[in-house]
Design brief:
Chain lengths: 203, 203
DNA sequence: AGTTAATGTGGACGGTGTCCACATAACTTC
DNA sequence: GAAGTTATGTGGACACCGTCCACATTAACT
């Protein structure tokens, strides 16, 4: 009672702190081991709280995981937005428009193999997705609209073309990441082939 | 000891029977609930054997899961092969070659939403993949070779083009299956757009 | 027939998600 | 500022899971 005197574990944290901490801990777990590594008890252990405390903030583990997935998806969107913003050139310029589309694909693939755990988690949302507007699809649509604006992409081909294009990039990320192409010797080249295929199809 | 006389649970099954049974049970579990549903104890329960019996046939759960994944992947390849074989027309004929490529994409996507659990499991192999030669990629390569043979695809564009194409189909399957596009209203149309994108790119 | 290897059993351990009853701190209201 | 209410954390428990150990029994081989 007198010596040691470690910080009283039972003291309550500031409001909403535990919830945010659990999500943050979950994100770190997801970063290392993907969605399956988001284990509720481990998250509470990191925050320094008893397992049941989590149930004051989430109905069950899936609800925590959903939150973590949203964070992961936002992280992907943020990194894409950053790389897009780095491309110089006025909006509507053919070259700049094409480079921005390229940046989208590159950023997407880079995130997938720099943060494989978060990437897998972003797409592992168990139920409803609460993704906001700055989403990978939204960014892609912007880029494609600009491509039309710049006269590179025929407006007649514009409608719905985001789906095949997203599919190529996402499929490449998945197949070369955790999929059957995971230990192909020429991963980078496969990625390049996919991006070139897109660029080639839009001219 | 005299009444009831249920079949002696402890009687040993014929050799290799338990192993095959566990894999079969695992496949059924995967069919219903995907890779996470392949739970070792449940599989042994289905076979009618004690949990530890599984460890005489598999080092751990992952080894059982790997086997189940292989079965799932073979199932996908088999269905693709069946649909390809259904396409009439001599090898090398432009029309037939194109229809066979179309059959590949269609069969792939059909399997993905007819058997979502097995599809997810096929690509969830935990470690090494023991897939044989009649694999989706192999079938796709055949079709592309035929397309060159038929004069539809420029031989110069042939090398490595299987990767973008596989990526489109796989990406579409994943995004519209368990991914963010899962509850888009026009799933079929998205799939059509992807397949059309491929066909359009090869002419 | 007797030995050996393969296979199944029983029991246990630590880990996980989740439920219940209880305690306590923080906010509200007078 | 005191009293009551609500939000939040605690302790303990349960069922389920993967996995390990020691033991039993069957099948195969000499």
């Amino acid at each position: 009672m007198s010596i040691g005197e470690e910080a009283p574990r039972s003291r309550r944290r500031p409001r909403g702190d535990v919830r945010a901490g659990l999500v943050a801990a979950g994100v770190e777990l997801a970063r290392t081991g993907g969605p399956d590594a988001v284990v509720l008890r481990e998250a509470t252990r990191i925050v320094g709280v008893v397992p049941n405390a989590a149930y004051r903030h989430f109905a069950d583990r899936d609800e925590l995981l959903a939150e973590v997935c949203t964070v992961a998806m936002n992280e992907l969107a943020d990194r894409m937005a950053t790389d897009i913003a780095r491309v110089r050139g006025r909006r509507g310029t053919p070259g700049a428009a094409q480079r921005r589309l390229g940046a989208i694909g590159t950023a997407y693939l880079r995130f997938a193999h720099e943060e494989p755990g978060l990437f897998a988690t972003a797409f592992a949302v168990p139920q409803q997705h609460g993704y906001n507007d700055r989403t990978p699809l939204g960014l892609l649509r912007d880029a494609l609209d600009e491509l039309v604006e710049a006269g590179v992409l025929d407006p007649q081909r514009r409608e719905g073309i985001e789906y095949p294009i997203w599919s190529i990039v996402h499929g490449t990320a998945v197949l070369t990441g955790q999929g059957p192409l995971r230990d192909a010797p020429d991963l980078r080249q496969i990625e390049s082939l996919s991006l070139a295929f897109i660029a080639n199809s839009l001219t």
